Design the sequence.
């Protein structure tokens, strides 16, 4: 009854694998039952598309003549600072980097019309990007200035490398204060004027494999329209979050660190976004296939929006001040109905993550697997889970007094 | 009954006169003020949606013009660039009239009903991919 990934891959190569998305599997299990569905279905595909601030890209732009070492100097991409603290011509640009002359929040709320996320999107789109480097010059790398157009097609290597993506569940954000607030979960109107959520719910990768039984380090995934891999647990990975009986965490929990070839990606799925008053971010599309190795794995993938619960958090006080209190819990079916109830008040909801695009990703991955273009991988190592997993800690501040 | 959206520009010597008020009193029109701004010693601007009998709307507009107010049809409109839109629905709970809405709660597809839009522009900045633009 139990299948192996090797067996499933054989079926994929023969074009015989039964592949469905994480929405379709719900109905299949309801109709046929777990045992029969586990026998018939080989792979369930998941997807998510939302702002993922801990994303970025690194690349090697090629040596100049005479040579230049950006390391220790400064670099701008379309006027957005890139990180240079590497060897000569490698750069990293983070999604949230702001343009050097951006007024930021000096006039609150700032626009943040352009930044690192947009630079990455333009690179992916094949647009020319202006690169300016100021170096200090050495005997082996004498050149001090560079001002040139670059294009992704001319770069040696260009990779998306995200230290924290695909959060397993997320807060539903509201605002209890009497002024509008501007957050990474969007604009929140005063006095519970709206509630913003950010998860693909029943389609979300880590909510379909809540204990990371099939996915782990080394797992091949769909990333930004190309192929990527899970390289580690993401930063702030917190498998200890309280869970429901079905294994689904009720608070933000597991995360993934991801890598993928930027040159394969599509600007539809790697998209710079602006959060007024907060900053720039990058919408990243991620799809993860889950091999149905047995009934237990299948049961996890059949999770429904009504079985996934998130915390309602006040972003005017509790969140910014690190207070643990939540205003309640709500399931995603209710969240997606367009209205939730908080403190007895009916509050309209908005998504920040796109369910529609998440489904497109799950379907694209499904098609690729069905056509034999995407094979599954065995994970190389597990993601931390259970009691032995490291705890996610706040900073233990040790202030430094002047003169000491 | 007819309805018409108009943009009024008041010359600076007229902004202290009760001109718009007469639309109700003399022409039996109702109006919804969609936007209004007056800069001291400069022009005043107002966007009105007029409702009433069609001939009374025409007469009301003639009255405004006779008073020296410049009257233009509302050509400002909000447009969504669907190639830029990521279908996230961040705009939906911001929009005060339901013009931006989720048309299907299964697919969570976002749509725009221009008929309901009052061009208030509240949606412009909260849109993460900045897919919503004002056109004049």
Sequence:
């Amino acid at each position: 009854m139990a299948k192996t990934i090797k067996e499933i891959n054989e079926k994929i190569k023969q074009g015989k694998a039964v592949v469905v998305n994480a929405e379709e599997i719900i109905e299949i299990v309801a109709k046929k039952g777990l045992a029969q569905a586990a026998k018939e279905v080989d792979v369930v595909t998941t997807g998510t598309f939302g702002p993922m601030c801990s994303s970025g890209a690194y690349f090697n732009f090629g040596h100049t003549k005479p040579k230049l070492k950006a390391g220790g100097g400064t670099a701008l991409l379309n006027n957005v600072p890139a990180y240079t603290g590497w060897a000569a011509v490698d750069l990293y640009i983070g999604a949230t980097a702001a343009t050097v002359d951006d007024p930021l929040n000096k006039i609150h709320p700032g626009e943040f019309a352009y930044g690192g996320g947009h630079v990455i999107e333009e690179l992916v789109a094949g647009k020319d990007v202006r690169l300016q480097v100021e170096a200090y010059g050495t005997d082996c790398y004498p050149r001090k200035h560079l001002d040139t157009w670059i294009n992704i097609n001319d770069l040696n290597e260009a990779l998306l490398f995200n230290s924290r993506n695909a959060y397993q569940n997320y807060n539903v954000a509201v605002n209890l204060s009497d002024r509008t607030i501007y957050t990474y979960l969007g604009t929140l109107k005063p006095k519970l004027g709206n509630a913003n959520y950010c998860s693909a719910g029943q389609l979300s990768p880590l909510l379909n494999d809540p204990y990371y039984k099939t996915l782990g380090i080394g797992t091949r995934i769909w990333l930004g329209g190309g192929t990527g891999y899970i390289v580690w647990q993401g930063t702030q990975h917190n498998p200890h979050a309280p869970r429901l009986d079905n294994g689904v965490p009720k608070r933000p929990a597991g995360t993934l660190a991801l890598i993928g070839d930027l040159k394969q990606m599509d600007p539809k799925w790697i998209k710079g976004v602006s959060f007024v008053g907060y900053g720039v971010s990058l919408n990243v599309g991620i799809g993860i296939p889950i091999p149905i190795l047995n009934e237990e794995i299948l049961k996890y993938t059949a999770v429904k929006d009504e079985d996934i619960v998130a915390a309602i958090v006040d972003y005017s006080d509790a969140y910014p001040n690190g207070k643990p209190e939540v205003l309640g819990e709500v399931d995603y079916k209710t969240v997606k109905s367009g209205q939730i109830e908080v403190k007895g008040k009916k509050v309209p909801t908005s998504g920040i993550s796109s369910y529609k695009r998440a489904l497109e990703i799950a379907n694209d991955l499904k098609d690729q697997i069905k056509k034999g273009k995407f094979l599954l991988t065995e994970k190389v190592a597990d993601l931390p889970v259970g009691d032995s997993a490291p705890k996610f800690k706040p900073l233990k501040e040790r202030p430094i007094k002047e003169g000491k | 009954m007819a309805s018409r959206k108009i943009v009024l520009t008041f010359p600076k010597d007229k902004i202290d006169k009760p001109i718009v008020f007469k639309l109700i009193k003399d022409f039996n029109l109702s109006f919804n003020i969609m936007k209004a701004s007056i800069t001291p010693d400069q022009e005043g601007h107002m966007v009105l949606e007029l409702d009433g009998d069609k001939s009374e709307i025409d007469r009301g507009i003639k009255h405004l013009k006779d008073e020296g107010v410049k009257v233009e049809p509302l050509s400002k409109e909000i447009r969504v660039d669907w190639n830029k839109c990521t279908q996230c629905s961040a705009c939906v709970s911001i929009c005060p009239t339901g013009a931006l809405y989720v048309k299907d709660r299964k697919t969570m597809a976002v749509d725009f009903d221009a008929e309901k839009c009052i061009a208030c522009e509240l949606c412009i900045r909260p849109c993460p991919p900045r897919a919503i633009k004002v056109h004049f």
About this structure: The interface with chain B takes residues 49-51, 109, 111, 113, 186-187, 189, 193-196, 271-276, 281, 283, 336-338, 348-357, 359 of chain A (CB under 8 Å). Chain A has one domain: 1-386. The two ends of chain A are 67 Å apart (CA to CA). Residues 1-386 of chain A form one domain.
